[in-house]
Write a structure and sequence with these properties.
mainly alpha; 2 domains; 3-stranded antiparallel β-sheet; two-stranded antiparallel ribbon; 5 strands; about 50% helix; elongated
């Protein structure tokens, strides 16, 4: 008799298209072949996970049409089953999958649109942030100021692309009156926030670099150096003050 772990492993393998003989021998088909009976679970899983991906990546689905999206989703699901029970957390790897999915190779903007939609999903489902702190709070942090790390809320995400993914996203919203935009115009450096609704704000590249690196956990010194590498004349004091003025810092250590 297989162990519970072996049964679970075999069932997982069956869900992604394999046919473990040990599992099938234990299934009473009751008028159906064991594989046909278990296929009910496989089909329900594919339908549920595909629907979850469509809910998270609606613009990607619209850009490629539902049939292509179903095909891509099916291929993705085979190697990316959920790790958590919350379907809103499913799909983090979908943008990277699209970047290496041969049928989408000619749609070079598509993975970045997916990255934007995943960032939007994270913002919309993020917990309420702690109250912002003032710039003066930096004075209470001991040690070298360049080694300070700032805490920023999960309801603020950063996405960059060589494609105008914000315009692509906006022009594909229900009821949008924006004209379709070329997918090969200007780059986008976006800050996505949830403040009285969803806000997508385009930032100068140097400001985006400064804020996004801080959000990733870089020290002030690291973020400043990388931002200056983009724009040597960047006013770092002003960039730091603007970050606090926007209410985007919830702690410092």
């Amino acid at each position: 008799m297989p162990t519970l772990h072996e049964l679970q492993s075999d069932f997982r393998r069956f869900l992604v298209g394999q046919s473990p003989e040990q599992l099938l021998r234990l299934v009473d088909g009751v008028g159906f072949e064991p594989e046909a009976r278990l296929s009910i679970y496989r089909n329900n899983m594919l339908v549920s996970l595909t629907a979850a991906l469509k809910a998270t990546f609606p613009v990607v689905c619209r850009l490629v049409d539902a049939r292509f999206f179903d095909y891509a989703a099916n291929s993705f699901i085979q190697d990316h089953l959920p790790n958590t029970p919350c379907l809103a957390e499913y799909g983090a790897d979908f943008p990277d999958f699209l970047s290496s999915f041969p049928p989408a190779a000619c749609l070079d903007y598509l993975p970045d649109v997916a990255r934007l939609e995943w960032a939007i999903n994270r913002v919309l489902h993020a917990p309420c942030a702690a109250s912002p702190v003032a710039l003066a709070s930096l004075l209470t942090v001991p040690g070298d100021p360049a080694q300070i790390r700032l805490q920023m809320p999960a309801a603020c995400q950063y996405v960059a692309s060589v494609h105008p993914v914000d315009r692509i996203w906006q022009s594909n919203q229900p009821g949008s009156d924006l004209l379709e935009t070329s997918h090969h115009q200007r780059a986008a450096y976006l800050e996505i926030r949830r403040t009285d609704g969803l806000q997508l704000t385009g930032l100068p590249q140097s400001t985006w670099k400064f804020r996004s690196r801080i959000a990733e956990g870089a020290t002030l010194g690291q973020a400043a150096a990388e931002a200056l590498g983009v724009e040597p004349d960047l006013d770092l004091a002003q960039a730091l003050a603007a970050l606090f003025d926007a209410g985007l810092v919830t702690g410092a250590h």
